[in-house]
Amino acid sequence: NFSSPMIHYPTMMIRIPPTTTQTTVSVSVWLESQPRPGLPPELVYRVHIAPNQ
Fold first, then answer.
1. Residue 34 falls within a domain, yes or no?
2. Residue 49 and residue 32 in contact, taking contact as beta carbons nearer than 8 Å
3. Three-state SS string across 3-52, please?
4. 25: closest CA among 9, 35, 37, 12?
5. What would the mean pLDDT of 30-46 be, rounded to a whole number?
6. CA end-to-end distance (rounded Å), the chain
7. What's the CA gap between 37 and 39, in Å, rounded?
8. Which 8-state DSSP code applies to residue 1?
9. Is residue 5 assigned to a domain?
10. N or C terminus of the chain with fewer C-beta within 10 Å?
11. How many domains are there within the chain?
12. What superkingdom heads the lineage (predicted)?
C-alpha cells in the first residue's frame, strides 16, 4: 500500500563494464511526483538519475 507520500533519496552504485580499468560511478536517484488524471499522485513518479561529480 502506497499510503505515505514520503519519498527518500537513496544513492545507488552502478558498476560500468570497463575496457582497461574498473570504474564505479555513484549516481543519485530520486523520485519526483508526477500527478496524472485518474491516478493517485503518490503512485506516479518520474525517476531522475544524476551522476555525482
1. yes
2. no
3. CCCCCCCCEEEEEECCCCCCEEEEEEEEEEECCCCCCCHHHCEEEEEEEC
4. 12
5. 55
6. 35
7. 6
8. -
9. no
10. N
11. 1
12. Eukaryota
